[in-house]
Amino acid sequence: MKVALVQRKYNRNSKKNLKKTISSIEKASLKGSELIVLQELHQNEYFCQSEATDFFKYANSWIEDVEFWSKIAKKYGVVLVTSLFEKRTEGLYHNTAVVFERDGSIAGKYRKMHIPDDPGFYEKFYFTPGDLGFEPIQTSVGKLGVLICWDQWYPEAARLMTLKGADILIYPTAIGWFDEDSKKEKKRQLDSWTTIQRSHAIANGIPVISCNRVGFEEDASGVIDGIRFWGNSFVCGPQGEIIAQAGKKETILYAEIDEKRTKEVRDIWPFLRDRRIDAYVDISKRYCD
Amino acid sequence: MKVALVQRKYNRNSKKNLKKTISSIEKASLKGSELIVLQELHQNEYFCQSEATDFFKYANSWIEDVEFWSKIAKKYGVVLVTSLFEKRTEGLYHNTAVVFERDGSIAGKYRKMHIPDDPGFYEKFYFTPGDLGFEPIQTSVGKLGVLICWDQWYPEAARLMTLKGADILIYPTAIGWFDEDSKKEKKRQLDSWTTIQRSHAIANGIPVISCNRVGFEEDASGVIDGIRFWGNSFVCGPQGEIIAQAGKKETILYAEIDEKRTKEVRDIWPFLRDRRIDAYVDISKRYCD
């Protein structure tokens, strides 16, 4: 199966941004991609750099947004993973991935479960933690274990998706550096991010797709300079082996996923066989003190 | 804190083998190592390549073995992580790590929980799965989350050790290649092994020590040629960053662990803060079908 990841810069103009994203989807579909993954909150700038109620306006178009991307998926005949700002009611919003089938129907949605809150990433202000659990989404290209950004640091999320039958793990994400950090610290952070996601592939014997933002976006509040999203979107196979990886430029990253290889690897390295489910109960505790 | 990992070849003679291991411990202690980690089942060859009741003889000396390593820990004044073949009664054996305090007292033991069973690694024949759970061991150099080999593929094990207060994760291990595998497959396997263990450091914000065997050991039964243990023992910090890594030769690998850095990283990347413990219950299921 051919997949495409659209790694893009936000260019301060939502309409132009949208146009470019659609043009990337068109290109990817013409190249035969069956599954296209967009980065986290791809419609707008990464507004969580500061806390301002004004940004809730971006969620006002939630219903229209879903209709819009449904039409795009149908037009290009692809399975499309989007990342949208969901308004459920006043004062209740989610960071939600909606997956569309080739015919434009909604295959399913996932509400981000793990919500970060760190300088520059004030997501707890905007997003109520998801209440749909870790449920993979059945599509014509397989059962997709869609998770979002901060979820990528949690082996529990990847494992639960796998136990529920996910064929692939998919992470739309928005992560980057602060310019003031040292070169070594930046390298450690990027390596950590790649390593933990590759490890989910390894532990669960399934491929991972991670689609990240790229480019500098300034902090509207001026508290920090801004975030330099590090790109480096990638696809890895079931042994965590990198199949394709982007750099720090806007790009459409293509990869071929070999379902036969996944099956082979899961039989050779049968980690699910030997899990000590009799001894895992404390994983549901905050801390064992 | 200075740690040392003793990565050794087995040289077909248990007495000579023992002598060399002790000489390595002596060297490491003279260099100021406070914590010394030995590889999995370091007293003998890796006998699990075939299934033969004759090998249970290696467990007959279990009580004497514990007394012996206790004296070694005391003699050199180090915290020592050993990996022994435990006889509990006739027909009931474990793959057990015993940790000794500097004064020779037993700090604690861990019985390998996840037991593999694959061609060349017939451990289910020899070892009853551990029944002590995932309990870190308190020592004068910190709370040690000792796990063994196959455990390294399970994020659950690393997480549970962390939730119970482990300061470091430690894996005595014995893993290697089959010569007939392709160069690419060997690379994928070694990368997987390093990546998954580095990911436990990242997910839990604590350093990882992994001490592996090295060198070729033939299969006594002649069914397969044997296993070429790949060495590559390593120590990584709480961001998964490699601090020291061995190659494919016998060596004593030294590393300095910086506890202050661990604390910093865990505050900057507070993954434990955001765990969705309300949504993890299915991790205790075999599969959600």
UniProtKB/TrEMBL annotation, chains A, B:
Key word Hydrolase present: yes
Domain called CN hydrolase: residue spans: 1-259
UniProt cross-references to InterPro entries, sorted A to Z: Aliph_Amidase/BUP, C-N_Hydrolase, C-N_Hydrolase_sf
Keyword list, A-Z: Hydrolase
PROSITE patterns attached to this UniProt entry: CN_HYDROLASE
GO MF annotations, alphabetized: N-carbamoylputrescine amidase activity
GO terms of biological process kind: putrescine biosynthetic process from arginine
CDD domains from the UniProt entry: CPA
Domain of life of the source: Bacteria
Listed Pfam families: CN_hydrolase
EC number from the UniProt entry: 3.5.1.53
Designated name of the protein: N-carbamoylputrescine amidase
Lineage of origin: Bacteria, Pseudomonadati, Campylobacterota, Epsilonproteobacteria, Campylobacterales
